[in-house]
What does this fold into?
Amino acid sequence: MKAKKILIFLLILLLILITLLGSNSVNSLDNLAYVVAIGFDIKDNGKLELSFQIALPSGSEGSSGSTSSQSSDSIVTSVECNTFESGVNLVNSYLSKELNLSHCKAIVFSEEIAFQGIGEYLYTLINHVEIRPTCNVIISKCNAKYFLNNSSPLLEQLSSKYYKIASTSEKVTGYTYNITLLDFFSDFADSFTECFATLGSVNDGGSDNRDSSISANGTDDSYVASETPIDAQKNIENLGLAVFKGDKLVGELNGLECIAHLILTNELDNAVISVPSPFESTNYIDLYITDSKCKTKVYLSNGTPYIKPDIDLSCRIISMSDDYKDLTEENILLIEEYTKYYIERFIYDYLYKTAKVFKSDITAFGKYAVSNFSTLNEWDEYNWLDNYQNSFFNVDINIDIISRYLLIDT
Amino acid sequence: MNNSKIGFVESVSIAIIVMISHILLNLPNEILSSTASAGPLNVIYITILATIIFLFFNKLFSPFKGKDILDVAEFVGGSILKKIISIIYTLYFIFVAGILILNFSNTLKTIYLPDMPTELLCLVFILIALIANQYGFKNVSRTNAIVLPFIIVTIIIIFFSLSVHFVPERFFPVLGYGTNNTFVLGITNIFAFGEILLLFLIRSNYKEPKESKKIGLTSIIFSGLILFLSVTALLLIFPFATGGEGVLSIYMITRSIQFGKFFQRVDALFILIWVLVFFAYLSVVLAFAIKITNKNTKTPTSNIPAFLICIGIFIVTLIPQNIAQIRFVENVIYKYACLIIVFGMSFIILLLGYLKKNKKSLIEGKF
It folds into this structure.
C-alpha cells in the first residue's frame, strides 16, 4: 500500500514536471497587436494588399486627440503580399508584435477583388483558428484600405464595438443584412444557395457634389452604400447587398431590393417603405412593416423551376397628415391595393434581377426545390444553381394594413 | 479489481463516455461524409441494428450468468483461446486509445497549444489515466459517472442553442447518396457502437447480473440519441459537413454559439469539459486493458501490465506521421478493426459458447 502511494506521488510529480518544460507558449498583452478589421484589396500588379485595422492601447499616441478622419483608437497598416499568412508575417515583422486576429469584427473585401473571386481567401479565413466565424463580411464599393481608414466610430468609443453596433441597423431598416463569415462560407459551399454579403462603402457626407440622378425612381429606399444623401462627416455606410455567383461578385442590390430579399427569406424584422399615395400622385405614404411571413413552394415543370412565394405582410401606416379623416374603410382598402401592387412589383423586380441578370439564387429557393429529389446524385445532376436562371415566379401577397395613432384608430 | 462491482449508472456511463469521445472528434463527420443528408436516418437505422445485435448477443450470453466474454472464450477453447482473445482485445484497446488520444492532442495543439509537442500532450493524458487507475476500477467508473452529466449537458446546450440556425431543408434529399449507401454500405457505420465490447467485458463486474440487458439497452439507446443530436446539428448547420471538410466538426459548431452579446466564445468552456471527458475515456479504456491483461496473466494486483499498456498506448501515438495518416487510421483501420473484433470475433465466440453449452446441457439433460 505504501509502495502504491509512493508510485502515485512519483507519477503526479512527473506530471507537474512536464508542465515546467517551457514548451507552452505565453503571450502577454505587450506582445500582441489586436486586429479589429481586415481589408483585402488587389493591386494593379495583381498582388494582394492586406490592410489591418489595429486597436491602439489606451495611452498610446494615436489614442488621444487624433485629428485624422481615421478612428482615433485604431491605426490602419497595409502590406502588399502574395498570401494572407505572409502578409500577417510581414506586418508582425514591421510592428515587432504579433497580430492577434481573435478580436477581428469585420472582414472587408473590395469590389475589385470580389469580382475576381475570393474563394481561396475564404478557405484561409474559415480555417484560421483565431478568426471567429461570427465576424462580419463586407464587400466595399471602394478600396478596402480606404474603407478602413474612414471607419470612424462617431457615437461609439471602440472600433470593435462600432462594427458590432453598426451591423445591427439592419434590424430596424431592412436596408442591408448582417452576414457572418460562417454564413458566407456556408452559402458558398452549399448546393442550394449562392452567397451574398453586406454592401459597404464610404459616404463622403457632402450633398454638394452628389450625383442627383443616383436615385432613379425617387424613393428613399433605392440607394446603395455611399449614395445616401446625408450631409455629415465622411464615414462608412452599409447599405444594400453584394450578390455572388460562386466566389465571384456579380452585382449589388439596393435598400428596397434588400427588403424584398429579407421578406422572401423570412429574415425581415421591421422596415419602413414609402408607397406612392393613391390619393395624390406626388405624395408618399410611409408603411411600417411589422410582421412578414413567406411560405415558398418550388415545383419543377419539365425541369424548369416554378417558384411560388406566398407572402403575408402586416403593415402600419405611420405617415400622418391633416387629411387623416380620409382614412375611411374604402380608402384603407385602396391603400392596401396600392401597397400590394407596389410590393409585388419590387419583389418581382428583385426575383427577375437575381434570376435573369445575376443568375444567382441568393434567396435559397434551392432548399425548397431539393425536396423534389430523393437522392443527392439526382440533385447534383440537376444542378440547381445553374438552373435557377430558368425559373419563373408567381408571387402571391396578402397585406393587412392597420393604422394606429395617438389621435385616431382605423 | 475483479471484485470491484459496479452499479447501473457507472456501467451505462462507461459505455456512453466511449461513444461521446468518438463524437467529439470526428464520428458525426464520418457518418455524414458517407451518407450525406441521410445521416440522421442512418443513425436511427444503426441504432436499431445495434439494439437488435445486442439483444441477440445477450441471448447468446444467457447461459453464462455473471461471466464475461473472456470466460466464454475459455469455455469454448480453453485457456489458449482465452489468451489469444485477451491479447487481441488488449491490442485493440491500446490501438483505439492511442489513436483517439493522438487525435484529441492534435486538436488541442491546433486550437490552444501550438507550441506544445503532441507527444507531450499525449503523455500527460496517459499519465493521468495511469494515476487514476492506481485507485482501482470502481473509482475510475465512479469518476466517469460524475463527468458524464457535464458532457451530456454541453451536447444538449450545443443542440438547442444552435437550433435557431438550423435549416430543416438540409434533411433533403432524405436518402442522401441513395438507399445502397444509407442502408447497405451504411451498415458499416455500426462501428460507432463499438462500446458494446465493453458491455461484454464488464458483465462480470455488475452488482446485479440480471440488469445486464437493461444496462445494454440504456447504453445503446442513450448513445444513439446523443449521436443523432450531434449528426443532426452538424447536418442542419454546415452544408460542407457532408463533404467531409469539417475536421473538427463539433468544435466548429461551438465556435458559433453566442448567448446574446455578453456570453461569447464559450468554446473554451466546452474544450475544458472535453479534456475531462478524454481523461475519463482514457482511464476507462486503460482500466479495461488492465482488467483483461491481469485476468489473462492471473496477476490481479500487479502494476506492471498497467505500465506496459501505457507504454503501448504511447508508442501507438508516435506511429502516425501526419494528420492524414491519423484520419486514415481512425476512419478506415479503426472502423474495420471494430467491425471485425467487436461484431465478428465476439459473435463467433459467443455463438460457439452458446452451442457448446446447449450441447453440454442436452447431454447432461439439463436443457
